[in-house]
Amino acid sequence: MMSTVDLIILGLVHEQPLSAYDIQKAVNYRNLDRWVKVSTPSIYKKVQSLAQRGFLSCESQPGGSQPAKTVYSITPLGREYFAELMEGIARQSVSILFDFNAVVANLNKLPPAQSRRLIGEIKENIAGTRDFMEEMAAQREHIPLVGRAVLGQQVAVAHTLLDWIRGFERDFDEEDR
């Protein structure tokens, strides 16, 4: 099974050696947790697993007044695994999964007023995501093309979802009359 978390971690240490804490900070700064399912505990576990499997090497570095920290570097085997993940994940069919679709699929089981309220909440959340992604894109104009491309993709998806939910809301209101 191809692991996007492995790919993210290997991609980050491919750029430069990092501690697990620095990997987590990079994930947060780049908002990678908004694009793929990745959590802080999974990052720490995956870093250890990648090191145990020989994909990362680790070196203890003195921390001055702080405790020593372990810094991870990608190994030649890790570079091979990275390339394998890149190829494998690029070949996978694209999943378009939105948790709110479980709500939409069950709206006909609720009173119309409650369904309308939930549609409104979904619309507000999509708009909030769009606003957040547009703000990130504006703040991150200096980042490499690949990062700008993903941000642009996320903004476009949010706009499309917002158009869709507005149309669905109209259709729902018309059908309910």
UniProtKB/TrEMBL annotation:
- What would be one Pfam family of this protein? PadR
Which InterPro entries does the record cross-reference, listed alphabetically?
Metal_resp_DNA-bind_regulator, Tscrpt_reg_PadR_N, WH-like_DNA-bd_sf, WH_DNA-bd_sf
Domain Transcription regulator PadR N-terminal: from-to ranges: 9-84
Name under which the protein is recorded: PadR family transcriptional regulator
Question: What organism is recorded for this protein?
Answer: Harryflintia acetispora
